[in-house]
Amino acid sequence: MKDPIERVVTSLRNSQLLRLFFITLLALLLQIPISMISGLVAERQERREQAVTEVSAKWGTAQSITGPVLVVPYVHRGTEIVNGQPLARSEHRNAILLAEELSIHGIMKSEVRHRGIFSVPVYKLGLQLEGEFARPQFAELGVGASDVEWSRAHVAVGISDARAIQESTTLTWNGKRIGFLPGIGGFPEGGTGIHAPVAITDTTQRVRFSFPLSLNGSVRTDVVPFARTTVFDLNGDYPHPSFQGKWLPTERTVSDAAFRARWSVPFLGRSYPQAWSSDAAMSGMIDSSRFGVALMNPVDQYHMTTRSVKYAFLFILLTFATLWLIEVLAGVRVHPIQYLMLGGALCVFYLLELALSEHLGFPVAYTIASAAVVGMVGAYSVSIVGRATRALGIAASVALLYAYLYLLLMNEDYALVIGSVGLFAILGAIMYATRRVDWYAVRTRAIETPVGD
Fold first, then answer.
1. Rounded to an integer, what is the distance from CA 349 to the centroid of its chain?
2. CB within 10 Å: which end of the chain, N or C, has fewer?
3. 63-82 and 85-97: which strand pairing?
């Protein structure tokens, strides 16, 4: 006669409901190494960003062009009450005037620089800017004609990384050539950049201008719509452009070797006027109106690995469920440690995926990692379930899960639909496979069936 404790242990060991509970608990336990792998992905991604920063610091950072603008200093006069008496005050301010028309034509030649195992897209950007300024209307700013300091007028161009300017440039102002000087002058919203003193008076009507600009940069470039009508034409040789910002191109063509984009932006769509005083806070509104292009990696291995890790618990649970169904249907017995071994192999997949993708790219790394894990799971399952056909079924189910995951990762826009339909199909398959199982009789058969049969 069995000891009472032994009878309890035997009952627990042969309770399929309790085994299912412990299998779920094991899947949850395996989230500890999965979380550690997630942390490793974040760490490697941070190292990649550091590599981008290091290369950009030497070559040129993402370039943002703000301008050109016409800056005209003036004297602001007012009164201030001091000790109950009005006191006249005056201070120097700058009027920031935008162009009537601005046309920017750009040619981007890209290349890839490396820092260790990390690659960074960089470019050489050649711009030709031209347009027209109208006669300044200072009455709209409440400035008297006698307070305008025309002799100190200048054109300013904000360049986010002026250090990366490759060639000296000159401004053609109504047919006269004027050399640019370092610094942004009286245009603080431009950050860093260049400026050129220009000749303009209260009798000037309209002024045509043009100038070239040659810059090094990396990852991204953008401009702002600083005219009543801003047209930006950009031709590049990068095959994977990502058009970003407040406006998308009105026309664009993208091929395997190059792209062309054209923006046409009217001033009505932005949130700042054609003219303002330097005491107005415009930086936030200007920054929100930027548009341009980023040089993107079509398959970011860190982003893809992060997404795949999010499905780890589901995939471990489904693999365990497959093994548990074989236990139920075939009457074999699998030890919890064997479940953990299989779960460990599934965890190693994400580590292999991450490590190999840094050298081979994500698609190749995913294929190699999934094939290696499927082979390991299949070989180990032979010793667990006792028959090659059963082991082949487990390996095939894992292979299908990895194929299903790859489909999810490659179709991010349709991931919810694919995931929902897939889970519905998996649940349906489990229900179909167990439709004839007498769950009340499973306990008895499990006790009577020899281990490994």
1. 24
2. N
3. antiparallel
